[in-house]
Amino acid sequence: MTIHHLITISLLLFSWCNNFIRIGTYVLVVHDAADSLLAAAKMSKYCEKERLTECIYYVFMVVWVSTRLIIFPYVLLYTTDFEIFQVDEPMITLVRLCWQYKVFNVLLHMLLILHFFWTYIIMKAAYLQIQQGEIKDIRSDSEDGNSEGAKIEDEINRNSDTNNGYISQNNVK
């Protein structure tokens, strides 16, 4: 995830500093299209709405694949790899000599590699959902009650049983 953020920030800086603003904006649009759906799926999961979680997750998968594995490479990368050389001759020479263009394109291709990796993880989660009947976030820690909230709740329950309903705080009753 850190690599993704470093690449994205570098792409944005390169796009703004080198007047590749359309491409930088397009990168943002393509990446933000599926993010809100993933957040909605996580919220419905936390609200224990399993059917809604599944529906939102499958819509997220379709949007993810269409934006990051179809639109990103076939529109954005095609433009930066091939269409840029269809302009007039002085521009082609300038682009071929420009180190910023080469770095920018390398960063775009690195981002595409990360998209393939994350698509594998998304598809793996969907496969596990089909097998086990529940969508689980395979990136995060387990939710088996070892969270901080569960520890606090256990402490409150233990104190309420022994202190006649009064919750002790810092051993003060």
The main pleated sheet reads as:
none
Write the element-wise H/E pattern from the N-terminal end onward: HHHHHH
* Topology, number of strands: 0
Which regions have little confidence, pLDDT < 50, spanning 5+ residues? 141-149, 159-168
Beta-strand percentage range: under 5%
Q: Quote the average pLDDT.
A: 77
| Terminal-residue CA separation | 46 Å
Q: Domains counted in the coordinates: how many?
A: 1
Work out the helicity level.
over 70%
Task: Calculate Rg over CA atoms.
Answer: 24 Å
Label the overall shape.
elongated
Q: Please work out how many helical segments DSSP would assign.
A: 6
Briefly note the structural class of the backbone.
mainly alpha
Region (Disordered): 139-173
Domain TLC: 1-131
GO molecular function, one term: sphingosine N-acyltransferase activity
Keywords: Acyltransferase, Membrane, Transferase, Transmembrane, Transmembrane helix
Report on this model:
One of its GO terms (cellular component) is membrane. It is found in: Membrane. The chain has one domain (2-136). It contains six helices and no strands. The protein has helices at 2-17, 21-46, 50-81, 89-97, 99-132, 148-162. Helix 1 (2-17) packs antiparallel against helix 2, helix 1 runs antiparallel to helix 5 (99-132) and helix 3 runs antiparallel to helix 5 (99-132). 12% of the residues are buried.
